[in-house]
Amino acid sequence: MRILQIVTKRQFRGAEVFASILASDLAGRGHQVLFLGLYSPPPEPLTASGTSNFDLLVAPGSPLQAVYRLYRFVRDHRPDVIQCNGSDTLKYTCLALKLIRHAPPIVYRNISMISHWVNTPAKKWVYRWLFGSVKMVVSVSDASRADFVNLIKKRNADVVTIKNVITIKRGVDLPTGFDRTQARKDLNEAFPVLQGQFVLLHVGAMTGEKNHPGLLRVLKEIVAHVAGVFLVCLGDGPGRAALDELVAHLGLHENVLFAGYQTDPSRFYLAADLLLLPSRIEGIPGVVLEAAAFQTPTVAYRVGGMEEAIVQRETGVIVEDDDECAMAAEAVRLLRNEAARLRMGKAAREYVEKHYNRDVTVDQFEKLYRSLV
Known about the structure:
Blueprint (H helix, E strand, L loop, with lengths): L1 E6 L6 H15 L3 E8 L12 E7 L4 H15 L3 E5 L3 H9 L8 E5 L10 H10 L5 E4 L2 H11 L12 E3 L12 H11 L7 E6 L8 H12 L5 E6 L5 H11 L5 E5 L5 H6 L2 E4 L8 H8 L4 E4 L4 H4 L6 E4 L4 H12 L2 H18 L2 H15 L1
Helix pairs in contact: 2-3, 7-8, 7-12
């Protein structure tokens, strides 16, 4: 099959990284895969190995340009199936394919809780109309599927039916033979500022839904009870400047490292004692699964599909949304109890091995594409 994977832009963020991995795995199975970003990529673009990587270089806020360039790309490359991976990919693809007589089927990967973004009557009407062009909606978690179904349940004949909304859970890499002690030593050498006893980790773009201000307030409470705690934040975004100011305001300049985007965060997962995730919204938190693969447990808010990624008090801890005191208290408890922390980390690894197998995920997508083609 010739498969087109479309992302917002070739950047190192959750939806895009998963799409690139899926594209590479499908190419490894003999399919011809095109990996396409709508907007200009960052200086170090994300690539999908074994595929053809493209960028449409659409100017932000230029919908007509986006539709026309997508139309030409699909017309010229003639994919058998197209997968849109979140954000702007859906609307522009659906509109572009209206211009093609025999358009290929569209699969939409629903990466989050769509009701958070499609939250006005006008937006709901538009998206219900758009989904009339979609053959299958693949949600990243059962929670995001239920949210999507609730959004479209008042549907008419041209809207995707509920039976065309399925869940395919994200698969993750499972590293072997890693050395946590050496990873911590390597991290300290790379970042001499990390001389504390404990390393907390957060991975996510610096946007509102990731709730970095809440994360820093949680850290403030943790360092008041445990000495030698350092937080490493991976990612970047429009909120960075405000976070620098908040760090100074909270007096945390000796406890925080903003390490920016990392093309390979594995050494950070392995060196961390805990992952903290106070997100406002999540479909399925891929960072929790990736941390678990390195036996690093998570303390997170109860949002979206979090309960599908964490088994409460077995592979991590979930606290109620926006309860910063509870998150800090659970982190303190685990930092003080190494045996419990290690036990959770081992259980987390076993959980993702069983429920988030990468090969199974690729099998499911491949089977889906074949059924549509």
